[in-house]
Amino acid sequence: MIKVLDKHFEIFIDEAEIQAEIKALANQLNNDYAGKEVLFIAVLNGAFMFAADLFKHVSLTAEISFVKVSSYLGTNSSGRVDELIGLNTSIQGKDVVIIEDIVDTGITIDKVVTLLKSDSPNSVKICTLLYKPDAFVGKSGPDYVGFSIPNKFVVGYGLDYNEKGRNLNSIYQVVD
Predict the structure, then answer these.
(1) Using omega within 30 degrees of 0 as the cis cutoff, is the peptide bond preceding 76 cis?
(2) Is residue 4, in this structure, part of any structural domain at all?
(3) Between the chain's N and C termini, which has fewer beta carbons within 10 Å?
(4) What residue numbers bound the domain in which 52 lies?
C-alpha cells in the first residue's frame, strides 16, 4: 500500500507484468508493420514511460514524436480537445501509431484521431497500455491494448494523481 497525496493505493500491475506486456505489444507492432516506416506519436504527459519502453523493443524503421493535447480546464476535462501541441512533422502518407497511457472515455483519443486524419496519413492506429472498456463511449477504440482494466482510478508508470505518482514503476489502483 502506498499513499499519493490524500489517497491510498494498492499494487495493481507490477513492473514485470508491464514490461512483459510491452514486449508483446512491440512484437505485435513489429509483425503488423514489417517492411513499413512508422511514425509513433506519444501523447504527453502520461505516455512518456510507456512510449520509451515500447520504442526500445520496436525493430522497425520508425520515428517517434511527442504531442500534448489541450483539453483540460483546471482539474476537469472540458470534454473538448482544442489542438495538438508539438506535432512538427508531416504525417501525410505515413503509417501513424498513437501511443497512449490509458484510454477511458475515448473522447480525447477520438479528437486526436480526427485531427491527425485531417493531415492525410496512410493509416492511424491506437496503442494503449491501459483500456477501460466499461468507461469507453468513443468511436476510435484502441487497436493494440496492453491491459483491459475496470473503471477504477489508477496511478503510476506515467499516470498521475494531480501530477504526482508518475514516477512509480508499477501501476497502483485506488483503495475504496
Answers:
(1) no
(2) no
(3) C
(4) 15-149
pLDDT digits (tens, 9 = 90+) for 140-158: 899 999 999 999 999 999 9
**What is the arithmetic mean of pLDDT over 101-107?**
93
172 part of a folded domain = no
CATH number at residue 117: 3.40.50.2020
Provide the number of structural domains found in the chain: 1
* pLDDT reading at 74 higher than 80: no
Among the options 53, 101, 104, 110, which is catalytic? 104
DSSP string, the chain: -EEETTEEEEEEE-HHHHHHHHHHHHHHHHHHTTTSEEEEEEEETTTHHHHHHHHHT--SEEEEEEEEE--EETTEE-S----EES--S--TT-EEEEEEEEESS-HHHHHHHHHHHTT--SEEEEEEEEE-TTT---SS--SEEEEE--S--EEBTTB-BTTBSTT-SSEEEE--
For the entire predicted model, the pTM comes to 0.92
Of the candidates 128, 123, 124, the residue with the CA atom closest to the CA atom of residue 142:
128
State the chain's mean pLDDT as an integer.
91
